[in-house]
Amino acid sequence: MDNSSADWGWEDKTLPLCGPLHRSILALDLESSSTRTDLIKVELRNQLYLLLHRAMQAAGIDERFCEPIEDRGDGVLVLVQPTDEVPRSRLLTPFIPKLARLLVDYNAALPAADRPAYRLRMRAVVHAGDVLRDDHGPFGAEIDAAICQWPFGTPRRRP
Known about the structure:
alpha+beta, disordered C terminus
């Protein structure tokens, strides 16, 4: 079977490019997700989104100033439009401390027997820069730079 682009209907499709657009970039990633079962990942992903939305609300980050949240499997990418209502500094304070407090509360509420499997830790990066977007989603050097700043273990290297 030939797996050429024509088989997928992409042969004549041109993807419109949007940007560069300046955005604040928030990336969250679940620690050790590859060591968890899929059923546990379901719960952890649900908690990631719940805690993200709660922390954003508590920090006064109105989702109408954010592009749709990009799911990354074991994490999310949030792009915030530049606006006086959501200064970039609000992602650092109060958002990050509020998210950290919510994580502590979630983990403390876990029954002791569930802690090894359901303990939740996240990596968080706040960055800003120009972002491009096409039909497949956002991309660009500034998103790559944000992801390369992950704080756990060996840092990821920029290409």
